[in-house]
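Box 3.1. Reading complex inputs
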Amino acid sequence: MAHLEQVGELELIRQLAAVLSSGPGVITGIGDDCAVVSYNAQDNTDLVFTSDAVIEGTHFKEGCEPCRIGHKAVGRVLSDLAAMGAVPRWAHINLVAPPEAELAYIREIYTGAQKLAGRHGLVICGGDTASSAPLALHVFAAGTVEHGGAVTRSGAAAGQGIYVTGTLGFSQQTGKHLDFLPRVAEGRWLRDYAGAMLDVSDGLAVDLARLIQASDCGALLEADLIPVSEFAGAQAAPSEKLSHALYDGEDFELLFTVRQEKASGFMDAWQSAFNTPCRRIGTTTAQSGLLEWINPDNQRAPLPQGGWLHYS
Amino acid sequence: MAHLEQVGELELIRQLAAVLSSGPGVITGIGDDCAVVSYNAQDNTDLVFTSDAVIEGTHFKEGCEPCRIGHKAVGRVLSDLAAMGAVPRWAHINLVAPPEAELAYIREIYTGAQKLAGRHGLVICGGDTASSAPLALHVFAAGTVEHGGAVTRSGAAAGQGIYVTGTLGFSQQTGKHLDFLPRVAEGRWLRDYAGAMLDVSDGLAVDLARLIQASDCGALLEADLIPVSEFAGAQAAPSEKLSHALYDGEDFELLFTVRQEKASGFMDAWQSAFNTPCRRIGTTTAQSGLLEWINPDNQRAPLPQGGWLHYS
């Protein structure tokens, strides 16, 4: 009998999705950053749902500063909503905590969660508490977007520029995986430009592979253009730093393509709107699923796959 | 420093709610079975959100039949939606499972979840997977209700009949805590009759205390009228059986009051609509927070408090 560690996360999700039935009103179901639903044809608004967990030992270490746990928990769902171009609205938090947990520590987690949620208009209006270990928060969030306006993973086509916000790599070493700023305003603004979009949670190489698979196109990255995060402790060679940028997870930056009719003047418009760094790192290509790069030796080659997934 | 086991679940929720800010569109926030929100004044529909967890060792035992785990996980959120009078719409499931879990077992959990969800029109359209132990499902659900039409805990007033569906007690011994049928159609129908409503998750005594506290009234139960579940293994005296009906949790029956103008003919209407048992068990009274009963010795007395709560 197969165990989860043998089949891997993607196959697990594929098999669970096969058990579940879709239904009326579901525009985008399992397989994107969020689900998109519509319940009222007269209404000009779609609802966007997402859920994520942060679990001690998996997503943060024991003894982590509590406000950072709350920040990360809310940041993850905000990043998912951002990747759809949605407006954050309401959230629920399910808390799992052992009976010996300190009340003050739990309260600080919620203070961190509220601080980030409040900054983005996300109202935490409910949840559940359960007595168990390890400490965990499961956050559910709902957002809204104009009917038909959600940006999915599947809207890219050959010949579009591929862009990423911020810098990538070393999120564990720098603490960015706890303190990242979800790109909510940027994601919302990108509705007018993006072909496809997602947030980089499992590493650039893995997440770009998802985007081109969903969009039925290919991609050509340029190694020299990939923005690598500064990490003072890194004594690594440039190629090793690049490897961190490609395969480390939890950067929660936006990865997107720009539609061809919007390509002209895109970077100027971006820089007028935001201080957040944004960089073109490649181009989508025609051959479905083919992920290539111009490597550091200036040769065109398949991008070696890596990245981090649960259960593998 | 205070630990969760010292402060108890209610105080924990009170303190966490104090950290969180409400916001625009929230009609009913923390403290009811579901949150109720409205995002569009022109729209005649409110959204209703709830979330619950089922965790191995807390809500089910190791080795539990997997389809029953999925049934309970979805049943809990359906019961919450029912208690608001809402139509179930969409759900997300966050799965926590250790890497050595069997794929076939997890798939069976989802089969049980889908079966119950499908019967009630609830579409499971997303979620998250994480590698950790113990096995757990966190389910988030969204429903809809006519604008202003959600039934809350706070709508009771003195002089209303208090009713409960089904029978109460021994849910652990009989397996009802896993196999219960959420009263979705009944809850929806009760919108036209109920003053206040909730589902009995922590025991009749505790949940009725919550209802009268939220409604700022009192209640007088009649011991002789409380419907006790049959349990073949019970050799207990009648008073001990009654104690199970009052203090056991996880029956997931609806507890509600009927508005005075709807009292006449209520039971006839119920019996025309449903085969589900329903019984009047008492009356709301004027003194806020006072929970009394006519005890088995036919004396009026305060109802002894008990019931089961997390962290206490």
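In summary: Chain A has two domains: 24-146, 161-302.
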